[in-house]
Write a structure and sequence with these properties.
202 residues, alpha/beta, single chain
């Protein structure tokens, strides 16, 4: 999905809530591209600061170089899975690999897409374009629904849209094309969202 909202709209809280669901799954690997280190903080700080338990995010990439390595790993995973699990897809007569503990979904969470270097964005676009069938997915957040936050690949191939409060209703028009912006009056509190799926409008 793509989640768009202004500062203070509740994006970090949204990603924390979704992350709490993901880290409970035994059939998911969670990779954060998070150069601000805000999105990952609540999942790794108890371990890093106090030695409690273990990091809940499998790979918190908080520098540009780490993000490059993570994206490269995602590309390699897609290539390997398309080769190694082609027979499984055929045998089970499915278009997409099922998630299971021995073949987990790989979920990239990207905080503030615009902050990523161009080569990392290219890698994210590749994962979006090629990863769906082998269960490698991407969720993005951004401040605005503009091309510097949402690439063409993200716009075309990411049906899930989450709109939080923005500074301009026209940005929600861009996030929900063909449906128009929802009434801005509904965004009364941080964390209020409007969701659009592939099959339903907002």
């Amino acid at each position: 999905f793509i989640a768009i909202g202004a500062q203070g709209s509740g994006k970090t809280g949204l990603m924390t809530t979704i992350g709490l669901g993901l880290v409970r799954c035994v059939d998911a690997i969670v990779i954060d591209l998070d150069t601000s280190a805000k999105m990952s903080a609540s999942f790794v700080n108890p371990y890093l600061r106090h030695g409690i338990g273990r990091p809940l995010i499998d790979w918190p990439a908080t520098t540009e170089d780490e993000c490059r390595l993570a994206v490269r790993a995602g590309r390699d995973a897609i290539a390997a899975r398309k080769t190694e699990y082609a027979d499984l897809l055929e045998d089970e007569d499915v278009d997409n690999l099922p998630a299971r503990p021995d073949l987990p979904a790989i979920v990239f969470r990207v905080d503030e897409t615009k902050s990523m270097p161009d080569d990392v964005l290219d890698g994210i676009d590749f994962i979006i374009e090629e990863g769906r069938s082998v269960n490698v997915r991407v969720s993005n957040t951004g401040l605005r629904a503009t091309r510097d936050y949402i690439t063409a690949a993200m716009d075309e191939l990411t049906p899930g849209r989450i709109g939080l409060r923005t500074n301009n209703s026209s940005e929600l028009d861009m996030l929900f094309p063909g449906h128009g912006a929802p009434d801005m009056a509904i965004f009364t509190d941080p964390g209020t969202v409007v969701y659009m799926s592939a099959t339903k409008g907002p």
